[in-house]
Every structure is written in C-alpha cells, then in structure tokens.
Amino acid sequence: MSNPGILFDESLLNIIDFQDKDIVPIVDECDRCTKVGFLPEVEASYLGLLIYVMDLTSLNSTDNRKTIEALVDKALNFTKETLKPDIESMASNHSCEIYNYFTTSTLTPQTVCVSSVRVADAIQRINSQNDHIDIASVAGGFPMGQVPLSCRITEVEYAISQGAAEIDIVIDRGLANIGDFKRLYHDLRSIKSVCVNGDVTLKTILSVTELDSYHTVYKVAMTAMMAGSDFIKTSTGKEAENATLSHGVIMCQAIKKYHDITGYQVGIKPAGGIKFNEQALSWLVLVKNQLGTDWLKASLFRIGASSLLEDVVKRLSAVLKKLQTNY
Fold this sequence. Notes:
Helix content: 40-55%
Number of helices: 12
Strand content: 5-15%
Low-confidence stretches: none
Structural class: alpha/beta
Protein name: deoxyribose-phosphate aldolase
EC number: 4.1.2.4
Catalytic activity: 2-deoxy-D-ribose 5-phosphate = D-glyceraldehyde 3-phosphate + acetaldehyde
Mean pLDDT: 94
Family: Belongs to the DeoC/FbaB aldolase family. DeoC type 2 subfamily.
Active site: 233, 269
Shape: globular
C-alpha cells in the first residue's frame, strides 16, 4: 500500500537520540554476518532476492538511446542467460526448493532507473522485446535538487507522461541543513500529489552524506515520510562520499517510528557505490535485523546500482554449483 503521508508534525522530528555507541554494534553485526557467510541455501535465496529488488541504474551524462537499450537488454536477459546452465543442472532434483525458486523467479531486476529524458528510450526498447520491466526515473532537479519547485514538478510530470512507473527525487539539502523542514515537507508534498494522480511510486533521496548530522538524517527521513514518500533512499550516487550502514541504521529507526505512529510501511533504498555482493548482503541483513522479514520484498526494499548485478550473478552461479554437489 502506498504511503499517503500525514500532516506535518514537528514533534515527530525530535523523538530519538542517536549515539555512536548504539549504532556501531548494529553495523558490526551486519558486517560479521556477511564475513562469516551463510549456508548455501540461504545465500542463494538472498542473492536471488538482491537481483529481484535491484533498480538497475544508468545516470551518466553520456547516456543515449543505445546505452539505454543495452541497459534494458541487460536487465531482461543477463541473469537468465548467465544462470541458465546452473539452473538446468539442478533439474534432476525437482524437490530442491532452490531449484523451484529459481525456475519460477523472473530473474530480472525490479526496475531500470534512468534520467527523465531517457524514459522513452527505455520504454521503446522494452516494447520491442515483448517483455516487461518497470521504469524508474530520477526527476525534480536531480542530483542537486536546487531548482524552482515549479520546474521540479514539471520534470516529474514529464517523466510520468513518458511512462515512468516510479520517481526518484532528491531533497534540497540546503533546506535540511538550515532546519527548514516545514518548507521541505511542502515541497515534497507537492511532488507527491503529482505521483498520486499518476499512481506512481515516490522514492525520496536524502543524500545523507551531505547532511550535517545523524539527527538531520532522521529529521529529513521523517519529513519525507510525513510528506508521503513510499521509499526513502540514501544517495544520488553523485555525492563525494557514499552512504554507510550507520546512515542506514538511522533511516531504519525513522521508518520503524513512522510505522509505529501511522501504521504505514515505508521502504528503504540504499544506493551509491554498492558494487559487490558483500556490500549488498550487509544492507539486506541490516534491513532484516532492524525492520524484519516483512521488509524483504521489492515493495519495501530496493538497491540502486549500476554494476552490482554482474557480481551478484557471478557469486550466485558459484553458490548454485556448490549446491549441486550437495544433492
């Protein structure tokens, strides 16, 4: 269910006090789980989930019709073609749950994420393949967010008109760092109204490493959710520093508190610099430990990445081969 948002309530911005001594053990446990490793069956299912919740992304200044066509082809075909021999090799044991899982899974990322001007290219390529994958579009003055609200709304409307099913917008970090959360709320609320009219998922990028404190991260996350964001997202991928699991802890705490108060579930999307399966698995463990298994689905958990898919598929292939020897 989409998060409809609530009226701005400043009292919700000052509920939790964060200290490093509380955050560090949570992060350490996530990293420990990833380093120790998982049973092959568990790792295979987690890696499969990472593929399914991925927003396969290309947001380069050099993007063009051909690069977007290649991105769509990769999303639709790369995993299926690469893993086909491994899955077929498991066919002799139809009682194997992992075999059943991977033969019924789409083995495609959840979306292809592109710039607003490239949405039409992606849609055309998908239609030519007689296949389907949703298109997410960054919009609203990405990646800075410092353009007039009217221009931000116009770009969001344009992306939706071109066929975007999801919109990733970025906040104005200037407003956040001076504490003008009420204006930030109203800006995001205006964009939410456009998405509601188009039945479009709204993901709000916090750019956490450009905010001045953990407290500001929490306040921005809560403001974005009150404004109706369906997901809160860590980064644009263009920041000088990438988000860390520590930022993720703060975002998860905000999501839990918002859910406790309103009953609405809001998703989380880490993005930026996530290139290796171990990094993605650490985020998965964080979400599982902090928010619960209910959040381990594409409607509440995404990972934005441009080069993660290859590493996840490579590792998954190795794990499936290991499973074959166990049966």
